[in-house]
Specification:
It is a single chain. The chain is of the alpha/beta class and 190 residues long. It contains six helices and six strands; from the N terminus they run αβαββαβββααα. α3 links the parallel β3 and β4.
Length: 190
């Protein structure tokens, strides 16, 4: 959870006081096919300002139906809140979508998508999808790289020298890298 906390704080630019895995994942994971249970994380965070936020993280591969995949994932994460105890109110939901391809025309690698309405009584500002397009990311100055850029560079994974420098700066990325290395050493081919 410390690794997820650091990643979420850097992408959403928030300070997290508490973080919990959504109990929905534990209860439902045994019923999901392995491929549906891989590459996603669903947590509930409380910020230092006491705001509760549902956060979902997914890796999206391929170039087809990306917008549909992001909207479906957003609705799944938002509606999973019904699995919480009844006294808990719905909270703002933010998803972090990490793409292995370029999907949007803008040159920026990072963007936030919010839905707006022309009706003043419809509240949509809580719908928040963060998008990271890995192929668009480049490092301008490795010595002054911020936490968000560290995470994106690590996830992009295309330069081992840069990854090694990032691991020297960020203990959570080092911890994740060690877990990934351990996973691949223990992975059995089926």
């Amino acid at each position: 959870l410390d690794i997820l906390k650091d990643f979420i704080e850097s992408i959403l630019n928030i300070d997290i006081k508490e973080i919990y895995l959504n109990p929905y994942l534990n209860e439902r994971s045994k019923y999901l096919p392995k491929e549906e249970n891989f590459g996603i994380a669903d947590v509930r965070v409380r910020t230092k300002e006491n705001e509760e936020i549902n956060v979902g993280i997914q890796f999206v591969d391929g170039i087809y139906y990306i917008q549909t995949k992001m909207l479906l994932y957003y609705s799944q994460i938002h509606l999973n809140q019904m699995e919480y105890k009844p006294q808990r109110e719905f909270a703002r939901t933010a998803t972090i979508n990490i793409l292995d391809c370029n999907c949007f025309a803008s040159p920026q690698y990072s963007k936030v998508i919010r839905v707006q309405s022309n009706e003043s009584n419809i509240k949509l500002e809580e719908l928040e999808m963060h998008v990271i397009e890995l192929p668009k990311f480049t490092i301008e100055d490795i010595e002054n790289i911020n936490r968000k850029e560290q995470w994106v560079a690590y996830l992009k994974g295309d330069n081992q020298d840069i990854i090694d420098k990032i691991k020297d700066k960020n203990k959570n990325i080092t911890a994740l890298d060690n877990l990934v290395e351990k996973y691949w050493h223990e992975e059995k081919m089926e």
